[in-house]
């Protein structure tokens, strides 16, 4: 921990690293009430650590898999399936002598040198022990849903690294079905996690918990597809090809619009169940950002982005409560059609590596009592 960071509160620490790694979430997460802000900000940064391993332009697949497995082994102890292990035990001498990669030692501070220590991502990885310390302070029901989601996402990342091993790129998506599987692994699961955290803070929403989780997968797919379309050129330069070669961008736009309908219905269901305003504002802001970005991409092509001023204007609209979202058309929703083991209509036979097909996670009982820290 740096000399500056040891005097920061946990909330200040999370806020600083959100600013460094995602300006979008640095704007979105402060919309949340303080009791939710830390839990969701921490979740984002922990997922960012896993994503930074998978995303790293340097480093071979073997190293990435080793590091991801190390993370998975740690967080699987907090998903309710194994006895818990504290951050201090994570660096205990018996682990250091066992031959396992210890992700918290200075020698591997940037996770095997995948990122420069001077980059925002490198600085986040340097502070990984502090993230674990904050994670260990969370109420047990919160740490359990975060641990379960991280374990599932990391498992998906490893599958995609394995599935691309016979291709020149580090990740090479072959079909629309595989693209949807990838979106579920890195974004749909996050939607389920956020929904579970929202339910913990608003137990009255339990009546629609399963439907919210199902819609959250489409919401996450919507956000992830926008990122993929926006960053396609840069990703390809770094050996990460997410849009299948023989699939048109128009097909990806149509898929994103299906997720957009799910996102709208998700927000409407939050409103119907009287979720706290800060949760609704947070989701509205993410929706408006993705909607605006999709419009920009259709007009200007790959790399087109909202300007900083446009983002700030959207934030002001949400904060002023003048945001009016369209009524979702359930007839075009992707939620009822999310079948991750089915190919996109009209795209022919599955080609390339066959990936294990995870089902959309069934709803798990969520303990809604907030355990004091």
What does this protein structure show overall?
By secondary structure, the protein is mostly helical. 58% of the residues lie in helices and 1% in strands. Helix 3 crosses helix 8 (128-136), helix 4 (61-75) runs antiparallel to helix 9 (140-163) and helix 14 packs antiparallel against helix 15 (308-319). The two termini are 22 Å apart. The model is unreliable at 86-101, 106-110, 331-363 and 369-373 (pLDDT under 50).
Q: Which helices and strands appear, and what pairs or packs with what?
A:
Blueprint lengths: L9 H12 L1 H6 L5 H22 L5 H15 L11 H4 L2 H4 L23 H7 L1 H9 L3 H24 L7 E2 L3 H26 L7 H22 L1 H6 L2 E2 L7 H24 L4 H24 L7 H12 L54
Parallel strand pairs: 1-2
Total beta-strand segments: 2
Structural domain count: 2
Give the terminus-to-terminus CA distance.
22 Å
- Low confidence ranges: 86-101, 106-110, 331-363, 369-373
- Structural class computed from helices and strand pairing: mainly alpha
Instruction: Estimate percent helicity.
Output: 55-70%
The largest sheet is: 2 strands, parallel
Number of helices: 15
Strand content: under 5%
| H/E topology pattern | HHHHHHHHHEHHHEHHH
Q: Give me the Rg, rounded.
A: 20 Å
**General shape:** globular
Average pLDDT, all residues: 80
Strand line-up in the sheet with most strands:
1-2
């Amino acid at each position: 921990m740096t000399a500056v960071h040891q005097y920061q509160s946990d909330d200040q620490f999370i806020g600083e690293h959100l600013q460094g790694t995602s300006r979008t979430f640095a704007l979105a997460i402060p919309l949340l009430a303080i009791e939710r802000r830390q839990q969701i900000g921490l979740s984002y940064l922990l997922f960012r650590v896993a994503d930074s391993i998978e995303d790293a332009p340097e480093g071979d697949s073997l190293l990435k898999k080793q590091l991801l497995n190390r993370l998975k082994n740690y967080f699987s102890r907090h998903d309710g399936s194994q006895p818990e292990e504290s951050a201090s035990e994570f660096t205990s001498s018996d682990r250091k002598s066992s031959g396992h990669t210890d992700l918290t030692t200075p020698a591997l501070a940037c996770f095997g040198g995948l990122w420069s220590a001077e980059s925002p991502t490198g600085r986040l990885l340097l502070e990984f022990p502090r993230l674990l310390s904050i994670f260990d302070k969370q109420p047990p029901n919160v740490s359990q849903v975060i641990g379960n989601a991280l374990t599932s996402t990391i498992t998906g990342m490893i599958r995609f690294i394995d599935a691309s091993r016979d291709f020149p790129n580090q990740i090479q998506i072959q079909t629309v079905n595989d693209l949807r599987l990838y979106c579920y692994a890195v974004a749909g699961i996050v939607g389920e996690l956020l929904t579970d955290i929202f339910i913990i803070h608003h137990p009255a929403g339990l009546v629609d918990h399963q439907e919210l989780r199902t819609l959250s997968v489409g919401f996450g797919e919507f956000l992830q597809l926008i990122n993929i379309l926006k960053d396609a050129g840069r990703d390809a330069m770094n050996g990460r090809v997410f849009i299948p070669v023989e699939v048109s961008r128009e097909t990806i736009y149509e898929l994103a619009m299906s997720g957009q309908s799910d996102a709208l219905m998700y927000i409407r269901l939050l409103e119907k169940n009287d979720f706290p305003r800060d949760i609704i504002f947070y989701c509205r802001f993410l929706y408006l950002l993705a909607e605006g970005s999709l419009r920009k991409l259709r007009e200007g092509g790959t790399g087109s982005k909202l300007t900083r001023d446009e983002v700030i204007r959207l934030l002001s609209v949400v904060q002023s409560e003048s945001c009016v979202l369209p009524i979702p058309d359930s007839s075009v929703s992707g939620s009822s059609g999310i079948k991750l083991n089915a190919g996109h209509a009209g795209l022919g036979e599955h080609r390339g590596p066959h990936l294990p097909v995870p089902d959309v996670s069934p709803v798990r009982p969520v303990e809604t009592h907030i355990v004091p820290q």
